[in-house]
Design brief:
- Helix 3 runs antiparallel to helix 4 (63-94).
- This protein starts with a helix and ends with a helix.
- It has helices at 3-12, 17-31, 37-59, 63-94, 96-100.
- The chain has 101 residues and is an all-alpha fold.
- The model has no long low-confidence stretch (mean pLDDT 92).
- It is globular, with a radius of gyration of 16 Å.
- The relative contact order is 0.08.
- The chain is 84% helix and 0% strand.
Length: 101
Amino acid sequence: MSDENTQKTAQKMDKDFFKRTDAFIKVANELTKEHEVGKVSASMLYAAARFNAFIVASSAKDKAEADRNKVEAIEYFTNQYRNMLIANMDDYIEKYDDYLK
């Protein structure tokens, strides 16, 4: 992800987006001191899925509406994750030596 793309993404997010993101990453990094990185990753993915399911369900007026919103919500969240993963993979590959050496 180029610096220009990072800036565009940041402009679309609220001012505390990266502050919250860094807080989650800090917790994950702390957990890797006692747990395998893959297990921490799995827990983060599950937590995101659980929280997003809660958001969809709690924003619906009833069970039927939550069910109707399910497919659209799954598509939205999976597309968002895919785009974010691609952007971050591109960034890590582009700056591999800076980040990992």
